Amino acid sequence: MKKIVRCVSLAAAALTLLSACMGNHGDHSEGHGERAPSDVVIVPASEGPWALVPLKDVNADPDVVEVHLEARIASFEYRPGKHVEAWTYNGLVPGPLIEAKVGDRVIVHFTNSLTKDTTVHWHGQRITAAMDGTLAMQNAIKPGDSFTYDFVVQDEGLYWYHPHMNADEQVARGLYGALVVRGPGDDAVEVASEELIVLHDMHIDENNKIVLSADMASLMSGREGNYVFANGRLRPIKDLKAGERHRLRIVNAASARFFRLALPGHSFHKVATDGHLLEAPVELDEVLLTPGERVDLIVTATGAPASQVDLMSLPYERGHGTGAAAAFPLITLRYSAHEPVATPALPATLASFAPLAQSSGSVELVLSEDPMDHGDGGHGGHAMDPVFRINGEAFPNITPITATLGSTQTWTIVNDSEMDHPFHLHGFFFEAIERAGVAAPYRAKQDTINVAAFETVRILVTFDGFPGTWMYHCHILEHEERGMMGELVVTAP
Ligand SMILES: [Cu+2]
Questions:
Q1: Does residue 46 belong to any structural domain of this protein?
Q2: Distance 167 CA to ligand 1 centre (A)
Q3: Total domains in the fold of the chain
Q4: ipTM of the complex
Q5: Ligand 1: distance of its center to the CA of 421 in Å?
Q6: 10-residue averages of pLDDT along the chain (493 residues)
Q7: Which of 142, 147, 220, 336 has its CA at 20 to 30 Å from residue 348's CA atom?
Q8: What order of strands is seen across the sheet that includes strand 227-230?
Q9: The domain that contains 455 carries what CATH number?
Q10: Any alpha helices (H) in 109-209, and if so which ranges?
Q11: Same domain, 178 and 244
């Protein structure tokens, strides 16, 4: 039998570990030290609550969500009894869950209690540009200063928030959280439960200190942490009964780590991408979730009563040997001994999309990487820093793209590099129409899309949101901060 996970073997916990390993995989091998071959620390599944902590709405108006959010340093218990000093929203890693419904006005009183400037970006939401949290549209929020984000959420689904300056460092230190916008899509599929899951990672050394990306490999490929969490927990347990369906709504908040998600022995149905329902469920054995992306999966509990299975992160080669890492578990699904319950039907359709708009313009974006900074890199300009460019330009020395509000453009994203780049556009969502010369197999609305090494992806963008200056960039944060970002200027007709 192929070994899936190499479990750690510490004397004190040997029995628990052995049973956890045997129970999950029917295989066990002796480990030495705490690191699995992937360098990801693997622990036994652990009991306890792991839901995101909701942020208190202080406004009595049912159509207004008003919250207080503070970026501050706090201790994060990254594994039982072990703490790391993190940068947090409201003392939590991930930050608190902001929950609203479609059409709500969301008022976020944000205070920066860090020692560095920051901003908050509301990833994926079509809100006014002034509230988007980028330096194109607002000044950096200085230490001790406050800023009120005030916007209306018009799109339902799962979104997230994070800083949009020095994002590689600030996300590495723990600044990210989920935003869920409730709407009719919540009831699109009959399920026994919904889990909102933020996947994130941290690189923590043996002295309980966060390690930032500083070496050439992590600057080039992006930082991958040795601790990988679901909602701040290492391998939490999700209980279920055989026969049930459950909806897992997952954000990839990691700086660079790709999650190739699979549930051994189970298939699942993808029902939403980046918060937007698909037209129909798509059955898959695995799904690739790149940084910034969200996915809604319907898991049907087809396993046997009293069994358990792990939601795994499988190896994925995204360039520079990153695929050599081992698989590791993220969440353990634990079946009760209860006899199987009746499985509710899965709807044949979920949403109906308007016909694709006619494109009135085209843009080509060529992504490239360069191991040496020739003076144009956006991040300090150290000669040994890699630089990542779009159309030969490194942010901030770029030529903006322009578009008219209400129009539609075809963007051809050409990856002329040996590494995948997850491409994110602010302020508008898009649909992929072609990948590597092949038409998209089904329609999906996205704000982030992976463009694999040396691959070309064609997307259709309708500028149906707000005017202003919007960013587009690679969501590997080391790349974004080292040049791979551009600006889109949208003006009223
Ligand atoms: Cu990139």
A1: no
A2: 13
A3: 4
A4: 0.84
A5: 4
A6: 33 34 33 45 96 98 98 98 98 98 98 98 97 96 98 97 96 98 97 98 96 85 95 98 98 97 97 98 98 98 97 96 92 97 97 96 96 62 78 96 98 97 98 97 98 98 97 97 96 95
A7: 336
A8: 227-230, 193-202, 245-252, 294-300, 268-273, 276-284
A9: 2.60.40.420
A10: 167-172
A11: no
